[in-house]
Amino acid sequence: METTDSRDYFESYEDLTIHQLMLKDSARNRAYRQAIFDNADQIRGRTVLDVGAGTGILSVLCAQAGAAKVYAVEASSVWRLAQEVISENRFDNVVEVINSRIEDAILPEKVDVIVSEWMGFYLLHEGMLDSVIAARDKFLKPGGLIFPESATLYSAPCCVPGMFDFWDDLEGVSMRSFGEKLRSEASHKPVTAPVSPDDLLADPEVVTWIDLREATPADVDSIKMQHVAVANKAGKYQGICLWFTCTFPSYSTEPVALSTAPDEPETHWKQTTIVLPTEVPVEEKAPIAYELSLARTNENSRRYNIEVTMLDPEEVQHPEYCGCHMTKCILVRAMLDRYEMESLPK
């Protein structure tokens, strides 16, 4: 029996492992499958472009939904496996695998639909958004669909017990020195790991929203937001948690959303946490002010530098209706409530 070497398909063992994690991500797979089949009327008999097709699973789903033609464009050596998967599912007559960067690809026609799983950690890091935008501008017909069509990045202050509290007592031994070294390393590279919903200290805030129908690469070169969150419980402010949600187009059903939030089923993206060098105890309704910035690196446009700056709540402007316990916000809330009551018909 003829055997094949995985090195013919994957650039490294890490590459193989990443593809395995993606394929085992049931939340990801279900969301794409539901979105594609909910829009079968928009796909049936039409032409689809799969950007960064990988192993070809999305191409097969589009073929199953009735696409007349699917162009599966994949730049890496995994395109060979995609071809085998297409054949295994008997869609050679529908899906054409093209080994090329999407920026260099040549198609014989414009397409009606673009599908891509382009999202990276905290949405943008190691993602393929630029490639999807290039494919849209080059190949998508006017009014064509993009799966997903929008994405939102969120942030919230959080506890990070695995970086702090865990090391206070390890079987009766204090390992705080080791915890300090972990936090020092984490200050150079955000932590990708599941975050419990119970470890969030405040409601999430939108960092950025991306409309894939109109976005340009310049829109995500640099992103900066300043926010005053209000602690919804007492706890230890130890980091900022990031996650994202993607929304798919819909004509006849509720739009499908793929969420990587802490209170949703775990995905291979997990959550990303920027760990603070020291913890800050906070009371319920305490203001937590911070600035978050993301910027492309000069060395690699698919990678981002991410920074969190802790701000003094006394020195930054709070939202108009801030729920924190600072005197100025209590007075503003009282004035707004009084104005609202006086505006009601008598």
Give the helix tally.
Answer: 8
Structural class: alpha/beta
What does the radius of gyration come to?
Answer: 23 Å
Describe the biggest sheet? 6 strands, antiparallel
Number of strand elements: 14
Give the proportion of residues in helices: 10-25%
Shape: globular
Termini Cα gap:
87 Å
Mean of residue pLDDT values: 93
How much of the sequence lies in strands comes to 25-35%
Low-confidence spans: none
Instruction: Give the SSE order as H and E letters.
Output: HHHEHEHEEHEEHEEEEEEEEH
Q: State the oligomer.
A: single chain
Summarize the structure.
This protein is 25% helix and 30% strand.
Write up what this structure looks like.
The protein contains 8 helices and 14 strands. The strands form 3 sheets. Strands 6, 7, 8, 10, 11 and 12 form a 6-stranded antiparallel beta sheet that branches. Strands 3-2-1-4-5 form a 5-stranded parallel beta sheet, sandwiched between helices. Strands 9-13-14 form a 3-stranded antiparallel beta sheet, with no helix packed on it. β2, α5 and β3 form a beta-alpha-beta unit. The radius of gyration is 23 Å and the shape is globular. It has 346 residues and is of the alpha/beta class. The mean pLDDT is 93.
